[in-house]
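sorry for the late reply, my laptop died twice this morning and i had to redo everyting from scratch. anyway the thing you sent over, i finally got around to it. pasting the sequence first so we're on the same page, its 197 residues, then the predicted structure underneath. double check i copied it right bc i was rushing
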Amino acid sequence: MEADFHAAHGRLKKAASQFPGYEGAAVFPPSASGEWRSLIRFRTEPQLSAWLQSPQRKEGLPAVRSSLAQDFSVFAQTTPLGTTVRRMNGKTAMTPSWKTAMLLLMVLYPMAMLQSKFVAPVIGKLGAEPWLSVWLGQVFSVALMQWWLMPTVSSWCRRCLDPVDGASLRISLRGAAVAVIVYAASLTVFATVEWLQ
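ok and here's the structure:
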């Protein structure tokens, strides 16, 4: 009943696309395990949870279930910053920790330098005590990284971060070299441009 399955999944995908944070959906035909896979992506975990618990999803599931030989199981994964999760042949593959760490440092260092130069003095002038000033600065930095900087930089480095497509030594070394170049450029800029210090 593949035609029925695709039609039902298409209606479910259309309903999901109306929800905030929707980033796409795909259906993968059977692999060696003989199981079909359906992937749906949302920008944040709360946005995904809102879809999973929505009445629109519950209304669309019976049509999907009726086209299957057996019921489906849901696999959801919350990932660290910059981590890509892939599930293949029943096994989960994630971006190696060293790649995630290099990406995080690539974004964190310039963010910390700019925050201490421009944001911290403004908070201090408002009369905040040092303990509160540091906390407010961190709230600003984390929000910026979580919802803008990390998703943007991760999208630029998507191939290297992919645990399958980026698993080769050549791609991994190329990604590491790019990160080292960015580190060097950041250090050079903040070391030589005095008004940024």
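The radius of gyration is 22 Å.
thats about all i looked at so far, will dig more tmrw
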